[in-house]
Amino acid sequence: MDKDDVGISNVISTIFFVSGLCTLLQTTIGCRLPIVQGATFTFLTPTIAIMSLPEWCCPFTDKNNCSLSEAEIPTVGSDEHRAMWQERIAEIQGAILVSALFQVVIGFSGLMGFILRFIGPLAIVPTITLIGLSLFGAAAAQAANMWWIAVLTMFLIALFSQYLRDVSIPFPVYRRGSGCGVYFVPIFRLFPVLLGMCLAWLICYILTVSGALTSDPEGWGYQARTDSRIAVLNSAPWFRFPYPGQWGTPTVSVAGVFGMLAGVLASMVESVGDYYACARLSGAPPPPDHAVNRGIGMEGIGCILAGAWGSGNGTTSYSENIGAIGITKVGSRRVVQVGGLIMIILGCLGKFGALFVTIPSPVIGGMFMVTFGMVAAVGLSTLQFVDLNSSRNLFILGFSIFFGLSLPNWMGNNPGAIKTGSIIADQILTVLCSTSMFVGGFFGFLLDNTVPGTAEERGILRWRKLLITTHAASHATFAEDTTYDLPLVQRFLNRWSWPTYLPFCPSFKGFAECCGCGNKLTPPEHVQSRENVGYVKDAEESSNYVITTSL
Q1: What is 433-485 written as a DSSP string?
Q2: 113 versus 172: which is more confidently predicted?
Q3: Which helix (H) or strand (E) holds 376?
Q4: Residue 61, pLDDT score
Q5: Nearest-CA neighbor of 459 among 551, 392, 404?
Q6: DSSP code of 47?
């Protein structure tokens, strides 16, 4: 698809549009926290695995294994070429759309708490870490177009995000009553990636106009030129409204759905931590069960919308914007809702999406190196709860990560190696075994729950203690808070008793009684009274946990 610049710009615009729509739904009906929704890394690895099936072999990138002859390969930009990638993105749409139903059921049924009982740090670490590690090939391919520009981009992002993060830039302001003044903005901490990419982009422009970069399309460094894709700005329309089914009717295969479930599960675990971090930084009470359940369910609906619209990805909560709340001290729900409206408007401007297509490939490669590396590091940070002096834990960790890289690599080099006699079974096993995050997460989960080990050794005690204290604090200190009540309809729901049995309603009482708060908590160590819960201290400890275990 990367040969069709206008097609890429349309997909980028669709991502903006769907992200804005899902942000409005999440902040209004979902968890109701000021949290931005956007495309997620967790769906990339399953997508690559699905597209590695023989029937989706790309004649442009894998000519040796594709059955099409040179004469049969469609001309770039032709109707046949566009139909080819639209057929493939329709397959991804269907996989995301159907697998997201699992997330909807898990969220609105309240089963997320039950699932988290069996998912410990040793299952989460390989799952999240392998998302970043498995994408090194994509990052290297982009950066290899001009390594010097990629290294420059990495240097600038590191400079702004690490060395200059505490430097604030003064801006003149005028306030009614107090007159003119100076306002210091921590701009490097707010926009390190954006600033790094823009500055590298500017340097590429200078090198382009000065003639320092080759003008030969086959020469090394041509992809660093800012005019290599400039034609897309003229070809893209000024206004284009994304609509469901714009690439055709989504197609559904069992293999695609099973493969995408790995991304859905990782996205859910990531989002639970984001809710608690967002609540703390925005000054809101810790989200109660019904808000978490509703948030997860609404993210599932967001993925369904992304699949229907054809963004080529799902949606999830963005930790980067949560961090911005802590810096700007702006935790208003309405501010994020306005941001969602802006994203919808920008998604309808074709030229805006086309502008992103003109970013030089080495700049994107350098950005990938940093962001994918951070994803891997965030996964490893969950090891703070685990006893790393235990040979049991080291075995599980090392085996799940190493095998999670080895098996997908072997599957990529041996397509069609799995032959069970059933085409559907072959496709399912091929996709699952080609998805590194599934392989690593599955064996981490299996070994952690079967190899003998104490709860303290596995990190389960510290893991659940932080969740329980935050949960108890939300019921003890903010029992009468209305932050997470549904808009407009809450007063009507309070008149009936049946909403108390719905896990996504604010009047939900829980599945079992515990300490009088109406919620079932494990382990049984949770016996403290409502009066003895220390909210401030527990919330701070909990925020340290959720920030390090979210993306």
Answers
A1: HH-HHHHHHHHHHHHHHHS---HHHHTHHHHHHHHHHHHHHHHHTSTT--TTP
A2: 172
A3: helix 361-381
A4: 74
A5: 392
A6: H
> What type of residue is 142?
Q
Q: Where are the beta strands (DSSP E) in 61-185?
A: 169-175, 179-185
Burial zone of 337 (CB within 10 Å; 0-12 exposed, 13-18 middle, 19+ buried) = middle
Two structure tokens written together for 57: 């072999």
| Contact criterion met (CB below 8 Å) for 212 and 187 | no
Q: What is the 3-state secondary structure (H, E, C) of 206-269?
A: HHHHCCCCCCCCCCCCHHHCCCCCCHHHHHCCCECCCCCCCCCCCCCCHHHHHHHHHHHHHHHH
Q: What is the pLDDT of residue 548?
A: 33
Q: Which amino acid, 334?
A: R
pLDDT computed for residue 533 by the predictor: 35
Evaluate the omega torsion of the peptide bond into residue 74 and state whether it is cis, within 30 degrees of 0: no
For 55-84, the DSSP string reads GG--TTT-TTT----TTTSPPTTSHHHHHH
pTM for the full model? 0.79
Q: Which residues contact 144 (CB under 8 A, 6 or more apart)?
A: 150, 365
Q: At which residue do the structure tokens 């001290």 appear?
A: 329
94 by DSSP, 3-state: which?
Answer: helix
Task: Retrieve residue 23's tokens.
Answer: 């942000």
DSSP β-ladder status, 37-38 and 179-185 = unpaired
